[in-house]
Structures are given as C-alpha cells and as structure tokens.
Design a protein that fits this description.
Layout (H helix, E strand, L loop, with lengths): L4 H17 L4 H8 L2 H4 L2 H28 L10 H16 L5 H15 L4 H19 L13 H12 L1
Amino acid sequence: MKTYRRQIREKILQALYTIELRDTDIDSAAGWLLTQEILDDPNAMKFFNMLIGSIKAHMSEIDCYIERHTFNWDMSRIAIIDKNILRMALAEILYCEDIPPKVSINEAIEIAKKFSSTEKSSKFVNGILDAIFNELKTDGKIHKNGRGLIDHSTAKLHKNETSK
C-alpha cells in the first residue's frame, strides 16, 4: 500500500509535539509513531528521513524566520502545534528541492485545520508562511529544481536585478 506524504507529515508533527512535552529526542519520538506501512515503504522512509533530518539540522534557522514574522509574539506563546507546523513547512520550502513551496504551504494549512484547536490557526499558519515565502523568494533563497516548482520568470528577474 502506498504511503502518502500527508501521513508522514502528520507523524512528524506528532513527533515534534512529543519532544515539546517530554524529555526525549526527535528520533525516539518519531520512532514510536512510525507505522509498519511507513517503515515498509522505501519512498516514505526517504521522505520521512529527509524532512525530519532537515528540521533537526536547521531548527534554529527555521525558528529565526518564524520569530521575524510573528510580530509581537514570543515563540513560547505560539501554540505548540502551530509552531511545529510552521517548522515542518519551512523545512520543506527551504530544503526539499522536489516539493513546490505552494504544496508545502497548502499541506501546512490542511494539517493546521485537522490538528489545531482553533479555526484561526490555519489562517495564522497561512499568513506566516506566505510572508516568509515572499521574503525567501525575494532574497533568492529558494532553490527548487524541476517543472512547476518555482516561478522561474520571477527568479530570473531577481537574478537580473541583482547582477546590475
């Protein structure tokens, strides 16, 4: 049976949530949550390991982006679920070359609708991710390869402007 990336994202979110509440590391938390279906699917495990590895390796950088775009909000005041959805989506946007940023943002919004305790969470997640995405795009920090992954006309325009 094919494992869908949404299922993996949800498991990673649950692992991130667990480490916020318990004294454990992300690998242990994730290990408890993986189903046999995911473990048996090499593509699922590749995506899982890549995404969780990106989050682990770049958590402080990702958190800096979140902090810069959550005006008047201390990171400790952001709901744990929302904060971890933002972390996961930003890791995808920044480090998963084969996933279009809009897919990462849409997945984050849908996961927020499912897991967050308030309807406003999905709007909050959308607003923060959109602002960060626009900054990253303007700064030329999104490196995606392949058809449909990024608007290359905007990237070329930015490249031409910076080379002047």
